[in-house]
Amino acid sequence: MKMTKPISGHVVVFGAGRMGADIGIAFARAGWRCDVIEPGEASRGHAREYWSAELARLRARGSARRLRCHARAQDVDWKAVDLVIEAVPEDMALKHAVLRAVDALAPATAVIATNTSSLRITDVTQVLRDPQRGIGMHFGVPAHILPAVEVTRGAATSEATLQAATAWLEALGKVPVVIQRDVAGQIINRLQHAMYREIYHLIDEGIATPRDIDRAVRFGFGLKYSVIGPVVSRDVHGLPVHLAVAAQIYPTLHNGTAPSRTLARLVEQGREGVRTGSGFYEWDPDTLAQRLLEFGALLEAQVKRIRRLGEPLDF
Predict the structure, then answer these.
(1) Domain that holds residue 49
(2) Where does the pLDDT of residue 315 fall: very low under 50, low under 70, confident under 90, or very high at 90 and above?
(3) Number of separate domains in the chain
(4) CATH code at 213?
C-alpha cells in the first residue's frame, strides 16, 4: 500500500479528553486540519474552552481555525483524510467499535493509528479490513508539549505505513520512538511501571515517603536523564560497576504481580489524584489550575533547552 507523506494534511482524532484535545493542538499548530470526534456534549464544550485558553497561552490563536469538534463521525469530510488517531479509553470493545466505523469512512490510503497506552497494537487493529494500515501512535501527556511519540508496528503493519507515520511526526517536531515488536505497554509504560512497582513497594513497606521518592527522582537520575538517556548513562559511569551493583540489588527488588496495597487503598477511598483533590498528596482547588499551568510551562522550557542541545551523547 503506497502512502503519501504530506508535510501537513488532514487528521481525524476520536476522543476529546485531555489526550485527544492535546493531540489536536499538536497537529493544528503544525498546519494540519484537525477534526475531533466526541459524542459527549460536555466534553466537546470543555475541549473548545481548553483549546481557546491553551492556544492563547501558546500565542497560537491562529491554529484554532484548523480545529473542529464534532458529535458524529459522519460530520467530517472524509475524502482527503490522511490520518486517523483513536484516543478513546483503554477498552478493547470500544476501540474495536471506533476502528470499524473508521474503516468504513476513511479513504483506503489513510493511516489508522491507535493511541493505546497498554494494549497490543495487533489486537486493537485486527478488526481493520486492511491491517497493513494500522499502527500504534502513543503520545505522552501533555501530547502537544512532550516530543516523544511511540510508533509501534503491529503484526501486519506495512513499511509504508511506518514510514508515513514517522515522517508526519517528525514534521510536527516530534521524536518518533519506533518499536519493532508489538508488546503491551510499549517502551515508556513498561519502563515507568517497572519503576512504579518498586516505588510503591518502598512506600508500602515504609522505607521512604512519597515526597522523598519524588525528591530522589527529580533531583537525582531524573534530572540527568533529560540530558543523556539511561543506556548512555551506563556507558558513562562504566559497565563493570553497573554489573557489580546489579548483582547486589536485583535479588532484592520487588517482583510482585499484584498492584500496590497503598495504591489500591487510595483508589478505594476515592483519592484519585488532582481530579478529586487528593491522592498521595492533597491538592488545593484554589491553586491547582495555576500549578498545572506552571507545570506545563516548565515542561515547555525544558523541551526548548533540550532541543537547543540537539541529541547530546546520542551517538
Answers:
(1) 10-179
(2) very low
(3) 2
(4) 1.10.1040.10
Domain boundary among 120, 147, 179: 179
DSSP-derived 3-state class of residue 167: helix
Q: What is the 3-state secondary structure (H, E, C) of 184-244?
A: CCCCHHHHHHHHHHHHHHHHHCCCCCHHHHHHHHHCCHHHHHCCCCHHHHHHHHCHHHHHH
Q: Cis link prior to 142 (omega < 30° from 0)?
A: yes
- Cell 557489580, residue located: 244
Instruction: Say yes or no: 194 and 162 in one domain.
Output: no
Percent composition of the chain: helix, strand, coil (DSSP 3-state, to 5): 50, 15, 35
Q: Looking at the domain assignment, is residue 315 inside a domain?
A: no
Same domain, 152 and 193: no
What average pLDDT does range 264-273 have in this prediction? 97
Answer yes or no: are the C-beta atoms of 116 and 183 closer than 8 Å: no
pTM comes to 0.89
pLDDT of residue 302: 87
In our burial notation (b when 16+ CB lie closer than 10 A, e otherwise), range 28-61 reads: bbbebbbbbbbeeeebbebbbebbeebbeeeeee
pLDDT digits (tens, 9 = 90+) for 56-76: 989 999 999 999 999 999 999
Q: Which residues pair with 68 in a beta bridge?
A: 35
Give tens-digit pLDDT for 162-183.
999 999 999 999 999 999 999 9
Among residues of the chain, what percentage have pLDDT more than 70? 96
